[in-house]
Amino acid sequence: MNTRRGTIVAAFGRHYDIRLDDGRIVTGFPKGKKSPYACGDRVEVEPDADGRGQIVRHVPRTTLLYRSDQYRQKLIAANATQLIFVVATEPGFSDELLSRAIVAAEHEHMNVLIVLNKCDLSSGLAAARAMLAPYAALGYEVIEMSAKSNADALRPRLKGHASVLVGQSGMGKSTLINALIPDAMAATREISTALDSGKHTTTYGRLYRTPEGDAIIDCPGVQEFGLAHLSFGEIENAFREFRQFLDQCRFRDCHHAAEPGCAIKNGVAQGTVSARRIELFLRIAAHCRQ
Questions:
Q1: For residue 284, what are the CA distances in angstroms to 128, 179, 188, 228, 260?
Q2: Is the dihedral of CA 89, 90, 94, 98 positive or negative?
Q3: In CA terms, which of 183, 193, 235, 258 is 20 to 30 Å from 226?
Q4: Which residues touch 206 (CB under 8 Å, ≥6 apart)?
């Protein structure tokens, strides 16, 4: 069996661009009707002379970042070690979407980095900083920049990580990618030309390498981030400020809503837990897996 190992560098529905370990790029297809792979997955494929191949083995993942609702799952990235969530001074961003993405990353034990982009647009800077202040207080690093002029502040944070870039549409993720990886657009055109993939739609993600060799996965803009695959306890533990209180509630099955003797609600009253964060928690946990 002439199998080769490689990494999925782009996902297009039921077929995938796979960069083999020898540098070649082939189009891989899964067996059966399911498409169980994500950008960043390691696979073994049987390539043919035409640049196509059958995926024959899925190498076990270390992490999987994905979102879900009660009907389906949307894979985002595999084997990533760091979530970089991009927000901007304008247009406005959703702190609930940010919190949901952080919950997914915490569940996978990924590092979290928040990028506040478009800081040259000063009219919205103070409001954006205020919205991010609770996250900075929890220890999540926030980097301020204007990717349109300079994204170098992010480069040291990429070292040693396989990062996945997530954010709402309009936050400047494409500008950030082009600033970090000068040939990103050229690499995209090269892959599309080689595979005749100009008609591909529904791109789940694309993996690039920075000039320093670090991996970064760029994803389409997201407007929602369902977490239906997580249980109440898993969401609870993903709110890092809750962890110190979880064994202190009066009731073991406390849902931190209206129950008496809730340690987390007491934390809100004492100012050690953000009222906005527990509001977000209750909204997220309302739709969790039972």
A1: 22, 34, 36, 9, 21
A2: negative
A3: 258
A4: 9, 10, 39, 188, 217, 218
